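Page header: ASSEMBLY MODEL / two components / 312 residues total.
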Amino acid sequence: MNDYIAISKMLVEIGILWFVYYVILMFARGTRGVYVLRGIILITIFFIITKQLNLERINWIFTKLFALSILAFLIIFQQEIRRGLANIGQRRWSRFFLKESEIISEIASACFLLSRKKIGALIAIERETRLENYIESGIEIDAKVNSELLMTIFTPNTPLHDGGIVISGDRITTTGCLFPLTQNPKVSSNLGTRHRAALGISEETDAIVVIVSEETGGVSVAIAGRLTHDLDREAMERVLSNLYRPDKKGKK
Amino acid sequence: MNNWFFNNFWIKIVSLILAVITWFYVNEEIVKEKHMTKQLYKSSIINRVQIPSYGVKPIK
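Prediction written out in full:
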């Protein structure tokens, strides 16, 4: 009986540790911090090995450095920790309640109104891969997705209209983000910078990117380095609703 | 369920490996600590330390 209790306690403890590690790794994914985290994990494993091998001097140095590394960890991950705590407080829980159809409808409305006025737009919708690297290059706004706000952001000659915006869950997190341009030599030379940036970020992440062309007013969607041109509203809403939440709808 | 399992599969595996390593490492440290404490009791070091011989006068 005692054995069963001990084993179940062990499983519960390992489960808790697994969850903590999983959350940390998922959180660090797609940020600059992932490389630091990888380094810390390697050093920790090395530390455990030296301890097992009784390499006392090396172990002594590691023990002394460990206290310093906690301080370094807090400094290096300062931004991520702050953002993570804020997320726990607000955004992540709202994902359980968000209505994706409403968000898609708001995005589609904005895109087709912008298209009619031939105003360019670049919208990256975050899925599994975090877009932290690109968020850092923009201006944080953290507002609920709505078509009027999207139109206001992309209105020419306003301070925020340059660059792309990132939508995460039901929030517009950042505007004026710089996305990497595609390096694919097969991409048509007729494509402008906005479309190239959309392709670039869709190659590097699993984000869905919606583009409104300034020249033609055409609405396109870029996913996994592929561009689908000139969608009508119905087709765009269908594409977005199929891909917006991969955990729910199944991956492409 | 299947989808949940295969989403971020490698992150889940790495987390599990780290969790198991951490658990065994901490467990070993706890066992060592307990063992050392027992030894201290056995060698009656603690008993000697606890003898009120440092100027502490019993309350009358």
